[in-house]
Amino acid sequence: MTRTRNAALFCCLAAAWGAAFMAIKAGLGGPDAPGPFYETPVLFAAVRYDVAGVLMLGYAAVVLDDPLPRTRAQLAEVTVGAVFLIAAYHAFLFVGELNTTSAAAATIVSLSPVLTTAIARGLLPSDRLDAAGLVGLLLGLVGAVIIADPFGQAELLTANVLGKLLVFAATLSFAFGSVLARRIDSGLDVEAMEAWSMLGGALLMHVVSLGLGEPAGSVGLTMEALLALGYLSVVASALGFLVYFDLLERLGPVEINLVSYVAPVFAAVTGYLFLREAIDATTVVGFLVIVVGFVLLKRDAIRAEVRSVRGGPVQGDD
Predict the structure, then answer these.
(1) Where is this protein primarily located (predicted)?
(2) Does some domain include residue 194?
(3) Domain annotation covers residue 102
């Protein structure tokens, strides 16, 4: 019963986070069909986390005895979360999705566990990557290049390629911020860390939006805009992270990382159903290469997870 429940929640989370890429694209549109937030992508991301941050802070206030960051280490961890996990990640992602599809963006973001493992090991002298791990990292990067397809364009840096490079920059920001936050390990409850990071990141994105001169007055409060914001803020962010926290405790970091590899499937399906986005062969091939890279990097942890499920002895971990 518990395993069925976990599997159902896992699929719900993958669906919620996968469809989020479609919701972002619906709000942004593209050069040929601009959406309500086409001229204000960073503002779009900021408002998403205004709402999600308030909801998450309310939840943290209910479930935690003290949701406030008190020590310098806790403030540092929240700052890292706000700058890298929320502001940089989502600013790059939302701008990048102006010129790429939901499926391509989700697939590039699925590189995050590969980059996170590589960065963590690179910063820890006692835990360097071995030959197989280096091959896994290289395969992950090759997969990202295949998806970007820079050599299949008439010009090397077309808008489409630049969009995918921005999504890659978002993924790199998230991976780097995840490692920094883990290294600080301030002891702040994860719900509080997420809530304050969301609000701090939203504030930073509002500043960036103003600095870029995004015309807030150009946003029309259409039903499409409200649905995109509501889905991203409530379903993908607030409810999504609550499910994530629950599964992280039950399944551990290895299995929950696999959400990144299921989400692109839902991104591709919802992108096709709602936005008629085509799923090209390069995205599929790049996705498969990234998955192989992840398996090579996390082979010990995956092996240990399989043994634990089968009831055998657990040895080694990534």
Answers:
(1) membrane
(2) yes
(3) yes
